[in-house]
Amino acid sequence: MRFETLAVHAGASVDPVTRAITPPIHLSTTFERAEDGAFPGGYIYTRSGNPTRLALEECLTALEGGAAAAAFASGSAATAAIFQALQPGDHVIDEFTFVYESHSEHGHLKDLRGKAVAVAFIYARCPLPDFCIRMSTNFSDAAHKINDRPELKSQMTLLTISFDPENDTPAKLRSYGLGYMGKDATDLGVWQLATGSDTEIRKIADFFGLRYEVDPNDKTKINHSLRTIVIAPSGKVTKVFAGNNWTVAQLLDELNKALATQEN
Predict the structure, then answer these.
(1) Residue 186, Cα to own-chain centre: how many angstroms?
(2) Which one of 123, 143, 225, 252 has the lowest number of neighbouring Cβ atoms within 10 Å?
(3) Tens digit of each residue's pLDDT (9 = 90 or more) over 168-223
(4) Are residues 248 and 174 located together in one domain of the fold?
(5) CA–CA separation, 100 and 195 (whole Å)
């Protein structure tokens, strides 16, 4: 069913009394109780459940292809509910949109759920051997090792995000990645490179603690820190490497540990 059709019909049902096809807005805060004290209509108090809100939640569930949705009266209420549900050590990952090098289509971190993911940040023109060049060398080496093991290839993804979207187009990123994969390489395997709008890239960089700014003395250079993040199949952050002092073996070990959290 098309998105437009779902947006119109999902969550909507014909009113059994009036036969109205558009769901009404229910303003009542309380609902009738039966003689035994039960609530036969399924609703107790509008703060905990309301037919209008249920229709919205069912519509959002269908539009997002999810299992369920929860609507709140404010962003503060939604945020409070999420954080109150967390356990000690849990991490919350915001949603971000980026563009892959392989097909120039938009992707999201949620698309990678179910896999152990490592995320790093670079810009292709970086001349520093201990910064972006090392990050990309490590990721390409890790990609080769994962690509050679079919049982891991289907469970792991390496994602490199450029914070120079003006220059690092999807096509340039693909060429950049293939250059690191070796002579005559035509496939990146588990390694994906992506960029996005300035706003989205800044948002994801800020979220993970990456700092970057154009060098005021040389506009072709970007001064930046380093962050490499490992995310479990559940979406939980399991490791953050804050600099360049990590090896391919350590990265692969952290990815395997992230996979193991799915089994526990």
Answers:
(1) 27
(2) 225
(3) 999 999 999 999 999 889 999 999 999 988 888 988 888 888 899 998 889 889 99
(4) yes
(5) 7
- Read off the pTM: 0.66
Range of the structural domain that residue 121 is part of: 97-263
Counts for the chain of helices (H) and strands (E), in that order: 8, 9
- Which of 19, 169, 188 lies closest to 99, judged by CA? 169
Whether 45 is in a domain gets the answer: yes
Look at residue 92 and tell me if it is in a domain.
Answer: no
- What is the rounded CA–CA span in Å between residue 230 and residue 220? 30
Please tell me whether residues 137 and 64 are part of one structural domain. no
